[in-house]
Design a protein that fits this description.
alpha/beta, Udp-n-acetylmuramoylalanyl-d-glutamate--2,6- Diaminopimelate Ligase, Chain: A, domain 1, twelve-stranded mixed sheet, ten-stranded parallel sheet, 4 helices, 40 strands, about 30% strand, lipid metabolism, Trimer_LpxA-like_sf
């Protein structure tokens, strides 16, 4: 995809200083710019690079005035950082503006497919599936029976969406994610053997949900595992059966949430956090990385450690923990002196 400086300035509502006909096809960092690239300068720390960059076009703030000769065409805008972000979004939309049904792929005769849908090669679309307008399903995906995927959602290669699950509007599901696998439900008998408990519920992803690569969300035993509007899940996260995650909560990689736990709205949960089942975590909670949560958590708490303490108590305790060798040494010296006096 090639764009001229004039075309880009039109998209960003900017002004060209230099060759308005010069074309670019890639985006790059200013220090790594090459011919045919477009880059940006917003942080003054990187100003020296504008005099050496080989990028064909550089987006700058309107206030920027070069102090010596430059070899890159400038596009001046109100805010270079926001303009470049807008350009990234536009570039991504153009790059992923695919449609049509690639072959070989399987689409059930009972499936309902919207307009401008893309289904990549080697994908499987099951019975009674409903796919909304502008949905993109990349190659090697499995969409099980009775799944409903609403408009503008993008499902990347290798995703599996099991039967009866629902996916909202404007969702992103990254490669290798599995939505709706069986929950971890087993019942022991008197001999200590385990029998599988059927998992007959589903998973509901509401609108604007992002699911990271290789993240798994288990179907409910009964009812639904629910990921509310605006939730963002990082890579390699495990969400167990009947969990509910509230609106606009974000969870970093390698976190595990056990069954039937309810997490509130606007929470921020760090990486490698472990959360036990059947508890409730309130709204606006912050949990630091590698914490272990084994109790109910009230609104607005900030936690760290395993088992987790309040953030302030953890830091105070950690200061003492670091000083334990000195404290032990001091106690030993006191004991020796006491023994010598007896």
């Amino acid at each position: 995809m090639n764009f001229t400086a004039e075309q880009i300035a039109g998209i960003l509502e900017g002004e060209v200083f230099g060759d308005s006909s010069i074309k670019v096809s890639k985006l790059s960092k200013i220090e790594e710019g090459a011919e045919g690239d477009i880059t940006f300068l917003s942080n003054p720390k990187y100003t020296p690079h504008i005099y050496t960059t080989k990028a064909s076009i550089t987006i700058v703030n309107k206030s920027f005035s070069p102090e010596k000769a430059i070899h890159t065409t400038l596009i001046k805008v109100d805010d270079a950082y926001k303009a470049f972000s807008k350009l990234l979004e536009y570039y991504n939309q153009v790059k992923m503006n695919m449609s049509g049904i690639e072959q070989p792929s399987h689409i059930s005769e009972s499936a309902k497919i919207g307009e401008k849908v893309y289904v990549g090669a080697f994908s499987y679309i099951g019975n009674n599936v409903v796919i909304g307008d502008n949905v993109k399903i990349y190659p090697n995906c499995y969409i099980g029976d009775n799944v409903n995927i609403k408009e503008n959602t993008i499902i990347f290669a290798g995703v599996k969406v099991y039967s009866d699950c629902q996916v909202g509007r404007n969702c992103f599901i990254n490669s290798g994610a599995i939505i709706g696998a069986d929950g971890f439900g087993f019942s022991p008998n008197e001999q200590g053997e385990y029998s599988k408990v059927p998992q007959i519920g589903n998973v509901i992803l509401e609108d604007f949900v992002d699911i990271g690569a290789a993240t798994t969300i288990d179907r409910a035993t009964l009812g639904s595992t629910i990921i509310r509007k605006g939730v963002k899940l990082d890579n390699q996260i495990q969400i167990a059966h009947n969990v509910e995650i509230g609106k606009n909560t974000v969870i970093a990689a390698q976190t595990g949430v056990a069954g039937s736990t309810k997490i509130g709205e606007n929470c921020i949960i760090g990486g490698q956090v472990g959360i036990v089942g059947h508890i409730t975590i309130g709204n606006n909670v912050k949990i630091q990385a590698q914490s272990g949560i084994g109790r109910n958590v009230a609104d607005n708490e900030v936690l760290q450690g395993s088992p987790a303490l309040s953030y302030g108590d953890f830091n105070k305790s950690y200061v003492h923990f670091k000083n334990l060798p000195k404290l032990v040494k001091s106690i030993n010296e006191i004991e020796r002196k006491l023994d010598g006096n007896n």
